[in-house]
Fold each of these.
Amino acid sequence: MGLFSGTSARNAGIWAFNQAQDAANRGQGILDTAQGNALGALGQGFGQARTDLNTNYNGAIDRLNPWVTAGTGALGTYQGSLGLGGQAERDAAVSQFQNSPGYQYAVDQASDATARKASALGALGSGNTMAAIADRAQNMQNQEYGAWQDRLNGLSTQGMQAAGTQAGLQGQLGSSLANLGAQQGNAEAGIYTGMAGLGLNNLWNGTNTGIGAVTGAQKQARDNVNTGLNFGVNLAGSGLKLLGLGA
């Protein structure tokens, strides 16, 4: 290779261009890794938020479930006691009422009171006494039946309120999850936009550096060639002078 050859300058320019491209590629790799890490951390954070929301929601629902279950059962019995579900449901409700401890206690107390009064009058075994006991028991049944229905209605109302609370919680959960999704989408869009801008800058910087290296090498090659030509001309002139042929 000649001392003033442009080849060495061109090779240097090619090497510099390749180095610039390699640096740009490494920079893009770093940006890609950073983007992946950011998206991963973002997804993990929002995923944990969703898990926490669902856990709290399920806990609240579980605490309300007994009231909903009790209210649902009370509503069915209350409807049966009103005869709304047919004769079979009504019979089942009446049987449940008659087997309740409160009902039996009230009837027993009323019957005992009537029997004690009849005994004091010396008429415990009379037909009138037995009829009085039956009437008293029937009256107590009628009174207690209405009170029992009121209690069933109250319990079913509490169950309805608990179910309404559950519905409200479900709506809040849906809204919260939707907001989280929107926030995550916006955050991810911001990451993509930011990294795209950095990647574009990295590409332009690498390209400009490479172009600069090639341009500089081309100029250096031309300068080297011109220097070589000038040196050759000067050397030839000096030789002619030595031979006595020059001016």
Amino acid sequence: MTAIRLLPNQLISQIAAGEVVERPASALKELLENSLDAGSTDINVSLLQGGIKQLRVADNGIGVPFDDLALALTRHATSKIASLEDLENVASLGFRGEALASIASVSRTDFISRHADEKHAWRITSDGHHIETPEPAALDAGTIVEVNDLYFNTPARRKFLKTEGTEFGHCEEAFRRVALSRPDVGFMLQHNGRALMRLSAAEPERRFIDVLGADFAAEALSIDESAAGLRFWGMTAKPTFSRHTRDTQYVYVNGRFVRDKLISHAIRQAYQDVMHGDRHPAFVLFLELDPSLVDVNVHPAKTEVRFRDSQAVHRFIFHALHKALATPTGASNLVTASQAPSNPFASTLEASARPYPTFQSQMDLRAQQSSPDFYQKLFGNIQPQVPSSEPYEHTESSVAPSQDQPLGYAIAQLHGIYVLAQNHLGLVVVDMHAAHER
């Protein structure tokens, strides 16, 4: 039997890197979070070959003092926590002191930083094995981290990386997630020397449009609910803007992007009565609460969280979304991207003061006057009925059910989601989204 031995620090770091730095996008996420924790207001990202050849993040944050520079690439060295109490109340995005050390152990890394109190910048480099002595460098302010040849010294890991296009797609998605979380920060993304995305600091609604597009904004509902120390806000699309995949779903807990089963279940339940089971809603939603009420130290990538009172969080999110989706929207469901308001948050939730609707509450039925084109395509030519003094007598329709108007005539709209129509057989309920697709 082989004797138990203590692993060398280099191997320990490389093992940790396998959990923290799964691919270039993972490294990019960690570097962007470090920049935000440093108070940056402008962050530039530059990639070569999907981030495999080079990944560079430059910011204008506070920088690292010279005395701390040697620890920047050392495992379990951090300025963000110092005790268990700090960990239980952590508000920063990073806190373990693992990311930079893990990245440096599987790449050739250059770290340049200038603290506000320093006369000039300093550079420290790592070749994947050794950390060199700091030397003077040229930089006005902030920090630049340049990661070259990711996984060059662990070929078994490198062979699991995908094509340049695939890895860049993951990096771009990581960039979008961070950019959505901080509208107050400017971002730029370049790939192979070409600028792909420039995002100026802006209000949340403007950032959502810039990242997710005008189509999303035109079909989105604004949410901002608070109760018992919880706040849930953002934008969620109407059921008519549902998707085949979950590619437009962004949830943040205290500014951190997460994929939480509890939150996902609450959102799904809120949509279950107004959306087909094989469709997925689009949203960008933020949950804010006391850091002591949520544990973020659950997953190596910090994408999972654990709530102290999970049932209360679930109920709060469900009711907030349910109320927003139950608010009558009328003809606004048919707004096109070109008609999207410049400020999608301008329309407040008028029903926010009302109790949640029950099955016994009065349904909101409105005659639809503002979207004739939709009904024209769906129901054909609508002929107005002329009032007559003669008593009503039933006659056979001159149009067969299988001909031009199988759905009959539109008479009202329910919650901006369903069209109520009548034909010779009775009442017809039409899902506008499904009808539009057909």
